[in-house]
Specification:
alpha/beta, Thioredoxin-like_fold, 8 strands
Length: 186
Amino acid sequence: MPWLAVPYSDEARRSRLNRLYGIQGIPTLIVLDPKGDVITRQGRVEVLNDTECREFPWHPKPVLELTDSNAVQLNEGPCLVLFVDSEDDGESEAAKQLIQPIAEKIIAKYKSKEEEAPLLFFVAGEDDMTDSLRDYTNLPEAAPLLTILDMSARAKYVMDVEEITPEIVETFVSDFLADKLKPEPI
């Protein structure tokens, strides 16, 4: 490792960093700004997805396309996942554009309170990983399908409607944050 790293033998410092940044396993790469504030906890995923570091320092995007490499983020807390029919290339991008203003609003609201946003936002197309996720969570094959998945709580919330509109997404998110939705077990 040619970069600066905490020596594995320095257990006291590793333990403090684990507590400070919520590190639960290795390898972990957390990117900090010069003030020590977290830019991303997904540095490892970002390096794998951006090997030439064109988007460094990898400020989080409000909405991610669900991929094999970032699917690990589903375990970090509740995630809104909008499943779409990715046979149509424009549908995935349109879905991102639909939920992006809502994601940005939620992120800004919690950032102003110096808190982490309570949801991550994803768009999932049709691929083997998405099929596995649907199987694991026992979700129908419908598309579009609006869900909130909370893997750590082993709970899901499903909004199965013909058309997903910004109003439907916003109401779904607001109801989730207000604990008005009834979870289904995963």
